[in-house]
Design goal:
- The chain has 5 helices and 9 strands.
- By secondary structure, it is of the alpha+beta class.
- Strand 8 and strand 9 form a beta hairpin.
Length: 182
């Protein structure tokens, strides 16, 4: 003897699927620290931090402060220098070793370690957006960026590669998750 239920097995399966569908689709779009962390790490995975983002070689300079900074890269064997004494300038070009990193001399990428705070989602630029404050450390830092002389010459880079640094980012909520607006 079979018992009749008001819903067939097929109907129950469809209702269950429909009930769970919003939960399954929304998990990456929920405003949670885990989703923010994953979004930022995905974004930064291929965005390197660079020492000389706007530099072209050969670099010719007569600025004593710039000469001192560049000479630390000569000592790290990333650049070679020639001096034009008649016109008081130094000419820098990447060395054989430095050609791998030139012209920008990137020193790794951010790895977000914690989400410290976020603002409530608010409409902006056609999306709900939040401002996230986070801590990060640098990954894939080359040896030359860890040398004391280069770190002394480039204190902003040194602060980033030697510990945990704090920054902020805007994240936009989409149907499939969050993204960093460009």
């Amino acid at each position: 003897m079979t018992t009749k239920t008001p819903f067939s097995t097929r109907t129950r399966l469809i209702l269950l699927t429909l009930a769970l569908l919003p939960i399954a689709c929304d998990t990456k779009a929920k405003p949670t620290p885990e989703n923010y962390l994953q979004t930022l790490n995905t974004y930064f995975a291929d965005k390197s931090e660079c020492l000389l983002p706007n530099t072209r070689f050969p670099l010719i300079t007569s600025d004593p402060a710039e000469i001192n900074r560049m000479n630390t890269l000569v000592a790290a064997q990333l650049l070679t220098v020639s001096h034009e004494t008649a016109i008081h300038v130094a000419r820098y070009v990447p060395s054989t070793l430095g050609e791998k990193s030139a012209p920008h001399f990137c020193y790794g990428h951010r790895n977000v370690t914690t989400i410290d705070s976020s603002t409530p989602l608010a409409p902006a630029n056609g999306f709900n957006e939040t401002q996230v404050t986070y801590h990060y450390s640098m990954k894939d830092v080359p040896i030359w960026a860890k040398t004391p002389s280069v770190q002394a010459a480039y204190p902003e880079m040194a602060a980033k590669v030697t510990g945990s640094t704090q920054d902020k980012a805007t994240l936009a909520q989409t149907r499939v998750g969050f993204q960093v607006p460009d």
